[in-house]
Amino acid sequence: MNKTTGIVLIVIGAIMLIWTGFTYTKKEKIIDAGPIQVSADRQKTVNWPPYLGGVLIIGGIAIVVLSKK
């Protein structure tokens, strides 16, 4: 179990180092007056700091190394 958790942390950390964020589109209602509705597409961006991926990789390596018996 611990070794699997460590490997998952390493993989997630590597992905976070490669992609430092992502953008998605969300529909937002601008006007909602009974039967009349106006909506617009808004782009939202989610970013995380690159060092967070490095911390996850180091933590995953530590868990894998310490889980060996």
TrEMBL record:
Domain of life of the source: Bacteria
Keyword terms: Membrane, Transmembrane, Transmembrane helix
Transmembrane domains' residue ranges: 6-25, 46-66
Protein name (Swiss-Prot/TrEMBL): DUF3185 domain-containing protein
Protein species of origin: Mucilaginibacter pineti
Biological classification of the source: Bacteria, Pseudomonadati, Bacteroidota, Sphingobacteriia, Sphingobacteriales
